[in-house]
Amino acid sequence: MITLSKKLKKSSENNNTDTAPNVVPDGIRRASVRDKLLVREVQEMEANLPCTCTVKFDDPDVLHRFELIIMPEEGYWQGGRFVFPVEVPEDYNMVPPKVKCQTRLWHPNINEEGNVCLSLLRQNSIDGMGWAPTRTLKEIVWGLNSLFTDLLNFDDPLDNEAAEHYQRDKESFKAKVKDYVQKYAFFFFFLFLIVCRILYFLTLFFAVCAFQILSVSHYFCVLLN
């Protein structure tokens, strides 16, 4: 983050010292405005993350592309690990970020193709809660996180089949959610498998070591006798 901030400052200083006027293409100008906004907004977002969220930047100098990882601690999706790639377009903050859910799940407001139904992500929203230039990345993160708790909405679904499933049979819905979590998003399950594999190899290693020690001990006993 600091590196990009320094780059933007240096670029601004260079532009101010130029004697000849330069015509900056609209795309570059918009990206520059976006990147300046993101330096501040990313710092604010990271300082106010919910305890169930983490963010990952593949390149710390590229702030307009990152992953939000949500691991709910309660509710139907508890124990899962859900990845949301976030792309901030050049026209930000006049338009909202583009968000998809990379992890397959059974959810009334997130369909199996990864599309997300959240008012904050809508350019025009009839409920008055849509995107506005005053919105920030922090609000997007908290909104996405709340889709697993208090913003969960079965009455205005994106995935009608999931919502109807819940209305028809809540226990069956819960079972299918858990099945999807175990198949596609069960972080702790995979961690458990890794730990088991490590313990298995450690057991083999110590068994081989013990066998070799016994063999050597037996050999020396034979020599001494």
UniProtKB/TrEMBL annotation:
CDD domains recorded: UBCc_UBE2F_UBE2M
Reaction(s) the record says it catalyses: [E1 NEDD8-activating enzyme]-S-[NEDD8 protein]-yl-L-cysteine + [E2 NEDD8-conjugating enzyme]-L-cysteine = [E1 NEDD8-activating enzyme]-L-cysteine + [E2 NEDD8-conjugating enzyme]-S-[NEDD8-protein]-yl-L-cysteine
Gene3D superfamilies registered for this protein in UniProt: Ubiquitin Conjugating Enzyme (3.10.110.10)
Catalytic residues identified in the record: C117 (glycyl thioester intermediate)
SMART domains hit by this protein: UBCc (SM00212)
Family, similarity comment: Belongs to the ubiquitin-conjugating enzyme family.
Pathway stated in the Swiss-Prot or TrEMBL entry: Protein modification; protein neddylation
One MF annotation (Gene Ontology) recorded for this entry: ligase activity
Domain UBC core stretches: 33-186
The EC number(s) this enzyme carries: 2.3.2.34
Superkingdom, natural source: Eukaryota
InterPro entries named in the record: Ub_conjugating_enzyme, UBC, UBQ-conjugating_AS, UBQ-conjugating_enzyme/RWD
Region annotation Disordered: where it falls in the sequence: 1-25
Name the record gives this protein: E2 NEDD8-conjugating enzyme
Keywords recorded for this protein, A-Z: ATP-binding, Ligase, Membrane, Nucleotide-binding, Transferase, Transmembrane, Transmembrane helix, Ubl conjugation pathway
Residues annotated as transmembrane: 184-214
